[in-house]
């Protein structure tokens, strides 16, 4: 199976819990024979991709997906929770 991983913070920011979860998920999927690649841009899904696995629920996530020019394939979401003081006010 060919799987595209999408997480906005995978672009060189410091590694935290979310990134560790993503890297470990990728490792285990590849051990099982799946091909996993990272998307820097949700609109760049490669032909032949079977599923897009997104991490972290962004407030504009549905708009990103709606506007993405990508092949019709299932999208899996693993929301990652983190405390954000702006939402606790």
Helix content: 10-25%
What kind of assembly state do the chains in view correspond to?
single chain
Q: Estimate the global geometry from the Cα principal axes.
A: globular
Residue runs with pLDDT of under 50 for 5 or more positions: none
Q: Helix- and strand-based class?
A: alpha/beta
Distance between the termini: 43 Å
The strand order across the widest sheet is: 2-1-3-4
Strand content: 15-25%
Secondary-structure element order, as H and E? Answer: EHEEHE
Calculate Rg over CA atoms. Answer: 14 Å
What average pLDDT do the residues reach? Answer: 77
Care to count the β-strands?
A: 4
Major beta sheet summary: 4 strands, parallel
Q: Enumerate how many helices there are, as a single number.
A: 2
């Amino acid at each position: 199976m060919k799987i595209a991983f999408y997480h906005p913070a995978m672009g060189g920011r410091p590694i935290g819990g979310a990134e560790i979860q993503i890297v470990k998920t990728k490792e285990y999927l590849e051990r099982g024979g799946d091909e996993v690649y990272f998307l820097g841009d949700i609109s760049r899904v490669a032909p032949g991709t079977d599923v897009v696995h997104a991490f972290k629920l962004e407030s504009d996530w549905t708009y990103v997906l709606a506007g993405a020019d990508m092949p019709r394939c299932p999208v899996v979401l693993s929301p990652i929770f983190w405390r954000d003081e702006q939402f606790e006010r």
